[in-house]
Amino acid sequence: MNYERILIRYGEISTKGRNRKIFVDKLKKSIQRALVAYKEIEIEANRDRIYILLNGADWDQISPILRTIFGIQSFSPGIKVALDIDEMKTAALELVSSHFKKGQTFKITGKRADKSFELNTDEINHTFGSHLLKSIPGLKVDVNTPDINLQIEVRKEAAYLSCETIQGSGGLPVGSSGRAMLMLSGGIDSPVAGYLSMKRGLEIEAVHFYSPPFTSERARQKVIDLAEKLSMISGQITLHIVPFTELQQAIHQQVPENYSMTTTRRMMLRITEEIRRKREGLAIITGESLGQVASQTLESMFAINEVTNTPIFRPLITMDKTDIMKIAQEIDTHDISILPYEDCCTVFVPASPKTKPRRDKVGHYESFIDFEPYIQTAVSGTEMLHIGEAVTAKKLEKDINDLF
Q1: What is the chain's pLDDT, residue by residue, as a tens digit (404 residues)?
Q2: Does residue 31 belong to any structural domain of this protein?
């Protein structure tokens, strides 16, 4: 079937009131960015729907790309027909015939947005259902679980017909909820936290702590590869690579071993806070899951959080590791994350890290060092990479097709 257009349904965006246009505009830009290689398409957006005019573009190539775009609840390929019953019957027969296989059932789902149309909803269902039953031998009706659901939407300008509804990723368009900094390690969890944050409309910038020569160039590249995977969803991600060796060595030399992990996390948070302020972000995102490791107990989080008043989002906080791994596999970051290249979180790991650190004690140990110069040196030496600029839409398309 040569489809003419794609109908995009909003889902949660439909619940927005006066601000709906902002969300629709963000979603339109997300679609334009994802389909940049398809020069022939046109995108029309209004309060209720977005239409993609294919103009000859291949529906089978575009469909898997649309499935990954946050803000799309569902979409349907279809055709536009003049508000003429005979023309609509011809189009309906062609569309259903292209999907019908022997023994299959169908139903009609009519929707009359234009109340001036000569048939009401029940009459639409009856008129077109009868026409298809007479015209397609072996076709039967099943209003509960049909194999084919012909959707006929009558609007003021035209009628829109479709036989497929494909579920999208839901959520909100990336960038519609503001900007936040993702603390991106080389592990499984933080890329998933970034993915789930983008689903809630956040534009993310990633912050990674790099400790050469204790961490290798391959570990650095691993994080760049993870950021690139996330950029295939958002279009582009800014990655901040922070030189952390000097500060990490100072912690190792001055802070008691069982508190060194707590101080390390506090210093990472202070640096991320500085970068957030410079980049005008409004929150910090981590991949922490409650109780997963020593630094992710409630007591540890309480001690670590002390160094910032910025909201800290932990999308994985209640999730089991198996659930996190499942999402990592779905977004194609899992196999990169498990590559055996150490990040700075595994450098100088104490044999028995404190699982219930106290704020007063960690503050006491840190009082013997002036960490501020170390922090400012790390911030000023941070390398900023724009990940995704060189990723072509065709490569994006290939990777998404491989994913599905």
Answers
A1: 778 899 999 988 988 888 899 999 999 999 998 999 999 999 999 888 899 999 999 999 999 999 989 999 999 999 999 999 999 999 999 999 999 999 999 999 999 988 999 999 999 999 999 999 999 999 999 999 999 999 999 988 899 999 989 999 999 999 999 999 999 998 999 999 999 999 999 999 999 999 988 888 999 999 999 999 999 888 889 999 999 999 999 999 999 999 999 999 999 999 999 999 999 999 999 999 998 877 789 999 999 999 999 999 999 999 999 999 999 999 999 999 999 877 766 666 776 778 899 999 999 999 999 999 999 999 999 999 999 854 434 444 444 445 44
A2: yes
Instruction: Extract the tokens encoding 6.
Output: 């794609």
Looking at the structure, tell me whether residues 117 and 156 fall in a common domain. Answer: yes
Give yes or no: residues 113 and 213 share one domain: no
- Give the Cα separation of 167 and 45 in Å (integer): 19
Domain count, the chain: 2
SS3 at position 79: strand
Q: What CATH code is carried by the domain that includes residue 63?
A: 3.30.2130.30
| Tally of residues, the chain | 404
Full domain range(s) for residue 383: 179-403
- The answer to whether residues 217 and 86 belong to one domain is no
Residues 348, 248 contacting (CB under 8 angstroms): yes
Which of 167, 202, 223 delimits the end of a domain?
A: 167
Specify the pairing of strand 5-9 against strand 50-53.
antiparallel
- Report the distance separating Cα 219 and Cα 215, nearest Å: 6
